[in-house]
């Protein structure tokens, strides 16, 4: 029997790129996402390319829905060889511009709680020697004005992944967390469209990388048990290097002048 990969947020963008690459490598693909129409489009696209793919509509932040989805996954496949926790959302907005606690909590719920809940429900289906990949962001390495909940959630994913990695070392399950930069995905297009004026005025040039190429780079690095962070974007690699070598006060001052902020 072939291997199975499950991808949350797999109906578009980076998640769909993961699905296509792994499907071409012989994995059976299970997509978890919210929008049923997008799931059907993605599954049909993969099937047309000869990839065995199925989809389940689920809100990864909903406890009942995730439990039901895990039951459906177990029916489709007794085990998962590759679990990719990729579902996410980003809202570019100042803290003071949120109009309700529910709105403020949205990115945390989807980007962090959704990853934790998905891992809790689906990790029991992983055999020894399998893999988990979580998607964080370059903004998981720092705090950026206008992205406070998002940065908090993505930083939380890094520490959550590191904890799970140590918990699963004895089972030889590889755990990785990718921190990509800007990608040419529908999410990035929506983010740019929703940016406040001050961010657009002061923003540094943002070059979106190819999602399929970045997905390929990330998957190639999902090997062994000593690696945790995967940094596929040269800009994010530079950021990580600066944060490591400079005293925190120096790197903070440098980023104050480089990263957009209200004026």
Descriptive terms for the model:
about 260 residues; alpha/beta; Rossmann fold; seven-stranded parallel beta sheet; 10 helices; 7 strands; about 10% strand
List the helices and strands and how they pair.
Blueprint: E1 4-8, H1 13-24, E2 28-33, H2 36-48, E3 53-57, H3 63-76, E4 82-85, H4 101-122, E5 131-135, H5 148-168, E6 174-178, H6 186-194, H7 197-202, H8 211-220, E7 229-230, H9 234-245, H10 248-258
Parallel strand pairs: 1-2, 1-4, 2-3, 4-5, 5-6, 6-7
Helix pairs in contact: 1-8, 3-4, 4-5
Q: How far apart, in Å, are the first and last alpha carbons?
A: 59 Å
Under CATH, the topology can be stated as: Rossmann fold
- Secondary structure tally, helices: 10
Assembly status: single chain
- Secondary structure class reads alpha/beta
Low-pLDDT residue spans: none
How many domain regions?
1
Helical fraction: 40-55%
Mean residue pLDDT: 93
CATH class equals Alpha Beta
The CATH superfamily label reads NAD(P)-binding Rossmann-like Domain
What's the short story on this structure?
This protein has helices at 13-24, 36-48, 63-76, 101-122, 148-168, 186-194, 197-202, 211-220, 234-245, 248-258, and strands at residues 4-8, 28-33, 53-57, 82-85, 131-135, 174-178, 229-230.
